[in-house]
From TrEMBL:
PROSITE patterns: HTH_ARSR_2 (PS50987). Keywords: DNA-binding, Transcription, Transcription regulation. GO terms for molecular function: DNA binding; DNA-binding transcription factor activity. Transmembrane segments: none annotated. It comes from the Bacteria. It comes from Vibrio agarilyticus. Gene3D superfamilies: Winged helix-like DNA-binding domain superfamily/Winged helix DNA-binding domain. Coiled coil: none annotated. InterPro entries: ArsR-like_HTH (IPR011991), HTH_ArsR_DNA-bd_dom (IPR001845), HTH_MetalResp_TranReg (IPR051081), WH-like_DNA-bd_sf (IPR036388), WH_DNA-bd_sf (IPR036390). This is Helix-turn-helix transcriptional regulator. Residues 12-106 form the HTH arsR-type domain. Pfam families: HTH_5.
Length: 110
């Protein structure tokens, strides 16, 4: 049986699998997943993101911190405003996949 061409180093594959598992663990929280979904089309100010949430400011900030620490989002500051965006094209692809499977066309099925 032929091995996939991108599987060269088992240690590297272990590291990549650990990163993927960590991202999935972070995304597994519904509130963080909703933030990531809001960012799929581009960057949004923290104020606009907060308006889309039912969380307290403190709880919302903690979730944003987890997303930043795990490198799923990055920020850009402009004057007093902070803007969030997805940090990696791989994150965007994962969110798009979830959106296509769980959100798109849901109203039609119900």
């Amino acid at each position: 049986m032929k091995e996939p061409s991108n599987v060269n180093d088992p240690k590297q594959m272990q590291q990549l699998a650990a990163q993927a598992a960590n991202w999935l663990k972070v995304m597994a929280h519904p509130d963080r997943l909703l933030v990531l979904c809001q960012l799929i089309d581009g960057e949004i100010s923290v104020g606009a993101l907060m308006q889309l949430s039912t969380l307290s400011q403190s709880a919302f900030s903690q979730h944003l911190s987890v997303l930043r620490q795990n490198q799923l989002v990055t920020t850009r500051k402009e004057a007093q405003q902070v803007y969030y965006r997805l940090a990696d094209e791989r994150v965007k692809k994962l969110i798009e996949l979830l959106h296509n499977e769980f959100c798109q066309g849901r109203n039609e099925e119900q």
